[in-house]
Amino acid sequence: MGLILNIETSTEVCSVALARDGIVINQRENQSGQNHSKLLTLYIKELLDESKIISNQLNAVAVSGGPGSYTGLRIGVSVAKGICYALQLPLIAISSLESMAKSVILNLEKYSVQTTSHFIMCPMIDARRMEVYTAFYNHDGEIMRNIQADIIDHQSYLEFLDKGTVLFFGNGAKKCREIISHPNAIFIENVITSASHMAPVSQRYFNLSKFADVAYYEPYYLKDFVATIPVKNIF
Fold first, then answer.
1. Residue 24: beta bridge partners?
2. Omega prior to 183 cis, within 30 of 0
3. What distance in Å separates the CA atoms of residue 144 and residue 135, rounded to the nearest whole number?
4. Taking the model in full, what pTM does it have?
5. What are the Cα distances from residue 100, in Å, to 86, 104, 166, 182?
6. Which segments of the chain are extended strands (E)?
7. Label partner for 216 (CA 20 to 30 A): which of 46, 61, 112, 189?
8. Which domain holds residue 33?
9. What is the CATH number of the domain that holds 152?
């Protein structure tokens, strides 16, 4: 059994979900943009209060560990580690791509996916321009190709597409629809990074005692942070 607080801040979505034994019992979510620093701790408090859960009743905290937004990941991981330090709870780190893939596996009918039992999943997170963060998973959710930052062109992923159906989804898949035109490519709409998607994965990690080191854990940024200076503030 496990009562787990799940935190997802790897993209523009700020999402928190409370799950018991892998089933979401309450959640808060905002998709309007990078408001994580304002909303995250507020959402956690509201979630616990509304669910009548005292923080020391939690068994673990799970957090999206990337890839994704540098700032978003820093905020989510910092809050998660702070809670774990304060309450002496284990920290669970989950790939944002893995949780999206797991959600699609469990909800093929919801996403109106009609395919054979054998397909490949390609969750994508936007990395700006024509670049995406992605990995490949089989129909059982097992990883087939590790996380990479890919620049998309007409030849992308032919080694998978030529062999069978590939499901593309996530906020990075939107810009790939016009470029990846292979007949075996299926694009699924409205699959976002969400703390609710993390629940079955975080419970499995909890059961396996697959915990991150609270003191030393860092998100998987994949690329170095590049600071930019707004044009209006140059002078």
1. 19
2. no
3. 8
4. 0.91
5. 29, 6, 15, 22
6. 3-8, 14-20, 23-30, 60-64, 91-94, 120-126, 131-138, 143-151, 166-169, 185-187
7. 46
8. 3-95+193-233
9. 3.30.420.40
Q: 32 falls in which pLDDT band (50, 70, 90)?
A: confident
Average pLDDT (9-23) is 96
Q: Give me the sign of the Cα torsion angle 40, 136, 126, 116.
A: negative
Give me 165's structure tokens.
């159906």
Tally the domains of the chain.
2
Which helix (H) or strand (E) segment holds residue 220: the answer is none
70 shares its domain with 132: no
CA dist., res. 84 & res. 89, Å (int): 5
**What SS3 state is found at 119?**
coil
Chain centroid, CA 155 distance in Å: 26
* Mean pLDDT value of segment 103-107: 91
| The pair of three-digit structure tokens given for residue 24, joined into one six-digit string | 């979401």
Residues in the chain: 235
CB atoms within 10 A of CB 121: 24
Q: Are 67 and 36 in contact (CB under 8 A)?
A: no
20-35 mean pLDDT: 92
Measured distance CA(62)–CA(71) in Å, rounded: 18
140 and 101 fall within a common domain: yes
Q: In sequence order, what are the beta bridge partners of 57?
A: none
Do the beta carbons of residue 222 and residue 66 sit within 8 Å? yes
193, two tokens: 């990074």
Q: Angle between the 195-207 and 96-106 helix axes, to the nearest 10 degrees? A: 100
